[in-house]
Design goal:
258 residues; alpha/beta; Rossmann fold; 2 domains; 7-stranded parallel sheet; 44% helix; 14% strand
């Protein structure tokens, strides 16, 4: 298991205080990495170095980068996990320009901005890994539920692939992880709200949502720790020849050949 060892590596996990981000931060710390986490607000407790930042703000990204440089001298691994579904469902007619911009800023531009400011030191060292946390929605949009979110994640997928190609000869690997339905607090709340609006139970709401995507063959949502274990492998020396690929972790729900 030495090829999964991350001792001596410094990692930044954005959105690293809860859900998938926290699971990734904890997993990489167990593997020996020095982990930095960022989020808009500080959690009640964290065992990782915390930096408050709103990554939709260019000035906050600049400040985050400066603190990392001043304290750690840079990073070896960047996990762009910040993102989320923040816009209403109902299709194109319910979405304003502000909704589209909000979703793009959170799910795409924040990652582009952070990559751009942290990449020079990785390129200088000829070493580094960037993981973009996307979503299966980027390959299978549900027009009535997540149109703007799905489009922003599809754009992230395309950007990630292009960046991987650009950096492949410079020692920096870029990969995308696309979770399906994952048992996080936001997902549970989304299911509750969706079910309440439809006048059905959360269990029935889950069945209806999954029916739109063909269901989950494995019969359950992913645990955040399962996504974290995939990320751990991808950032480790064991994955040294992997770059430019999107890894869906969805229990087999995507009804396409990747």
């Amino acid at each position: 298991m030495e090829t999964l060892d991350l001792k001596g590596k410094t990692v930044l996990v954005t959105g690293g205080t809860k859900g998938i981000g926290k699971a990734i931060a904890d997993e990489l710390a167990k593997a020996g990495a020095q982990v930095i986490v960022s989020a808009r607000t500080k959690p009640n407790e964290t065992s990782h170095h915390f930096i408050a930042a709103d990554l939709t703000s260019a000035s906050d990204v600049d400040r985050l980068s400066k603190e990392i440089d001043d304290t750690f001298g840079g990073i070896d691994i960047l996990i762009n996990n910040v993102g989320g579904l923040t816009t209403p469902g109902g299709g194109h007619s319910t979405l304003t320009d502000a909704h589209w911009q909000q979703e793009l800023d959170l799910n795409l531009i924040s990652a582009i901005r952070l990559d751009r400011i942290l990449l020079p030191k990785m390129i200088e060292k000829q070493s580094g890994v960037i993981i973009h946390i996307s979503s299966v929605a980027g390959k299978q949009a549900l027009w009535n539920l997540n149109l703007a979110y799905a489009v922003s994640k599809a754009a992230l997928n395309s950007y990630s692939k292009a960046l991987a190609t650009e950096l492949a000869g410079k020692g920096v690997r870029v990969l995308t992880v696309a979770p399906g339905a994952t048992k996080t607090a936001p997902m549970v709340k989304f299911l509750e709200d969706y079910s309440a609006s439809a006048g059905i139970s959360p269990e029935e709401g889950m069945k209806q949502l999954m029916a739109q995507t063909g269901g989950i063959p494995m019969g359950r949502m992913a645990e955040p720790e399962e996504v974290a274990q995939l990320v751990h492998f991808l950032v480790s020396p064991s994955a040294a020849y992997l770059t430019g690929t999107i890894y869906a972790i969805d229990g087999g729900s995507l009804p396409v050949v990747n």
